[in-house]
Amino acid sequence: MALFKKEPQRTLTQKVGVLLMNLGTPERPEAASVKPFLKEFLSDTRVVELPAAVWQPILRGAILTRRPKASAENYQKVWTEQGSPLAVILQAQTAAIQTYFQAKKLDVTVDYAMTYGQPSIATQIEHFKQQGIGRIFILPLYPQYSGSATGAALDKLYADLMKQRNMPSIRTLRSYGEHAGYISAMSQHLRQHLPQLHTYDRIVFSYHGVPQNHIDAGDPYQAECLQTSQLLAQHLGLDNEHCITAFQSRFGRAKWVEPSTQNLLDTLPKQGVKKIAVFCPGFSADCLETLEEIAIAGKAQFEAAGGTEYTYVPCLNTESAWIETLCSMISNELMGWI
Ligand SMILES: C=CC1=C(C)c2cc3[nH]c(cc4nc(cc5[nH]c(cc1n2)c(C)c5CCC(=O)O)C(CCC(=O)O)=C4C)c(C)c3C=C
Ligand SMILES: [Fe+2]
Ligand SMILES: [Fe+2]
Prior knowledge:
15% strand; 11 helices; Rossmann fold; 8 strands; four-stranded parallel sheet; 2 domains; alpha/beta
């Protein structure tokens, strides 16, 4: 077997490509489609840090027999005519950023890739190379760095590069959780959705969780989330005590970072916190975890526990201030290339 990929002899030019990355999503909201997606995702040791000999029998046994069906039912609740929200929004973000560079008459090609499923980073880099693009900037759309999301995305990039003979120039951005434009886009967005911001008992900032042992081993994710929340509260003119940072989407039996969003939704009403707004700063696009888990199930859970008002604020998605921030962040990272 060849050690490196066979490819046509071709000249890579100074042309620039930008690749936006997100996690990936099943092609259809059906167990048969969710299963291979979960298998690829949960086999990544960045996501589940266990030796294959221990984890694979559990994954292929209990998890892949039950979870695809349950997950598919959840996907069905949020699926759109155009497809999975995560993919539809990523496509719209890509198009909006491409339009910006076109309007500026800059020769920058914008596309997107998924860490798991399609289109893969390898496919998209090959696609860029076919167009002669020799300078590629990869932007994982996770504001806060985590090994399990950002690291996993960049692993896929580097693994592909290691198989290439004719490598392009590469730049990446590891995180942007403190970026002033990101904070201000969120602040503006929250003010639009919550004109009576001060009338809520609490504003909950809910981030995707990670296992506590990742943090204990040096993953900066939790600290980066807390930093984003603090800057956002400050920008909104809210006391830190008025805002709660919590972590959602717990998976498996191991200890995950605390506090858990799900536990909070049960306990807050009992402490007299009955009116809340929930926003997910760590997700650049609405997806299963925000739309089903937070907007639908979270609301039902909070109300069942005695809460009276629950407002879900959508993710930044294609909000114009957010697209402008992304364009300015990308332009900054392309300095010297364009
Ligand atoms: C050990 C399990 C998981 C870790 C660690 C994890 C980290 C992590 N994930 C995201 C972003 C997303 N995760 C999404 C779905 C999802 N996540 C897990 C598990 C872990 N995630 C599972 C099993 C699933 C699939 C759905 C399910 O069965 O519950 C998604 C949404 C995908 C979609 O199709 O809409 C996103 C986005 C981050 C940012 C992160 C680490 C910080
Ligand atoms: Fe996840
Ligand atoms: Fe979930």
